[in-house]
Every structure is written in structure tokens, then in C-alpha cells.
């Protein structure tokens, strides 16, 4: 708590009993949106009778004294931060990194600091010629916070425009390694749907049910099963508990692989959004605590290939699985 913090206290009334926390906050503090309230709670800025709260969906308690410590607004312009990067390639036009799981790519709600953009501003200081007239790295594609793997960013406006066109035309090679619940049938194939933001959960994407609908965006994922693991109890012989699947993106929609694998009945292991509660049998296997300790979607961007925007050279980068995925794979192979 600092001298510049905005501290607000409010006692919940009887009529507030059972109300959802973030909804109550937004109703009582009109200058704060519900999404802002949610981020504040998740960031530990709200307490009940002196005890910090973390769950924005928690129910209100009548008579409780709720204290909100509203921190000063962050600058709209990200500031350089000395965050270590695993650089695979760098020149005057672009930089390619191997992003670790847990690193958010771009600043946004709940992640105004500590992102890849902040790290690149520090690492590339003095070598950014500007994107749109601003000294910043050009983010042409993203990986989810908890997805690891290869990512390219532009250093110049020209490189940014040319790379963006390659992604828009779907000429970029993108291959991911995913560990799934069960194994897809057939062993290889293509999932083609339209993907739209869920009307029930704004953080979640979903497949459009109506095949004739124009809602959402066209999404195509090509997959191939590389390995199968274990035997699902009480299922026909040859029904695996899990699989390693290579997914190649033809399009690049938000959460595309996670949505598509869940859509065909094989969500990613560890996925807290699209695969929640689907790994119970794995957790009950010998050494199942290894799976229980796995806290992210089992997805790694293993291959990225594109044409260099300045030289025209074919560039291709391939990375090994990070240690947590390799450990998961070793566990699955023992099933």
C-alpha cells in the first residue's frame, strides 16, 4: 500500500448477501467496470474484514467490511523490463524467441507488466526503428500465456507489415505438440469449423454449432497422432488414456488447437478452460501426482517457418519440448 493508492471501504448490506463479488463491486463503484473489478480481486487488491480475497465469483457476506486498495494507474506505454529471453535468432529486422510457459505476450487486463513486450523493449533497446511511429516490437502472432514455444516479433515497420501478410495468407508453417486426453480417431485428420467467443464465458472460445452460420471465424487444424499412452479402464482394448498429437495450423484463431481438440472429444491435458475435470483417470494411475502437478495446457509451439521479410530467405525454427512437458511425456510412457 502506498500514499498514491485509492483506498475504499464499504460494508455489505443484508440485500447483498449471496451476490457475486465482482458484480457487487461494479454496482457500488460506478467508475470501475466489472472486468476491472474482476482483475482487481484476482490481483489481491480486495479484502474482507482484513483478509485478502482472490475469487471474483465468491458470494457476498452481509455485514462484511470490504476494503478495496486501488493502485495507481499504469502508464499506457509499456516500460522496458529486464526479463531473460531465450533468443533463437535476431537481426536488424526481427527477433525469434523460445517463449516459456507463464509469460504473457502482450500487456492487457491483469498483465500490465512482466510481458514479452516489456522484455523485448529492454532487449531490443536502440534497435527498434518503430512500428506505426512508436518505438515498440511488432507482435504479428501470439501464444497463450501458458503455451510455450517459438514466436517471432518484428523490429521494423516494413518487417511487421510483411510478416503480418504471411500470417494473413496462411503461408507460415506452424506445428504444435499437444498431449491430449485419449487419442483422436482417425489417427490423422482435419478439424474445420467456425470459432466464436462464448456467450457464457468471455474468456472462452467455442465452435459454432450451425454449419451454415457465418458467425465467428473460419478455423482449420490438421492433426496427426504421434504416440499413444496407457489403456483406458473399462474401454475396448486399444483405447488409450492419452496421446501425443502434432497439430498444424492453417489458420490462427484464439485458442484454436485447444478448442478443436476439445471439440473432437480429446482436450489437452492440463487445460484449465477446455479440459477441466477430464484427467481424473490419469491422476489415479501410479505416479499420478506428476499429472496432478501439471498446471498448464500441454501445448508447445515446436515449429515456426516463414520467409524473411527483408532477405526473402526461408527461415525455419524448431525447438524441443520444455522440461515440464518432457517430464509429462516420460510419465505417460510408463503407463
Can you give a write-up of this model?
This protein is an alpha+beta fold. It has 8 helices and 15 strands. The protein has helices spanning 21-28, 34-42, 116-123, 157-168, 256-263, 280-283, 288-292, 323-333; strands at residues 6-11, 46-48, 51-52, 65-70, 87-90, 94-99, 138-139, 148-154, 173-181, 188-197, 205-207, 217-229, 242-249, 299-307, 314-318.
Give structural attributes:
globular, 19% helix, 335 residues, four-stranded antiparallel beta sheet, 15 strands, 28% strand, alpha+beta, eleven-stranded mixed beta sheet
Topology pattern, helix = H, strand = E: EHHEEEEEHEEHEEEEEHHHEEH
- Gross morphology is globular
Give the uncertain stretches in residue-range form.
Answer: none
Rg (CA only): 22 Å
**What structural class do the secondary elements suggest?**
alpha+beta
**Ends apart, CA distance between termini:** 50 Å
Assembly category: single chain
Query: What is the count of β-strands?
Result: 15
Average residue-wise pLDDT:
90
| Number of helical segments with 4 or more residues | 8
DSSP strand (E) fraction?
25-35%
The major β-sheet equals: 11 strands, mixed
Helical coverage, percent range: 10-25%
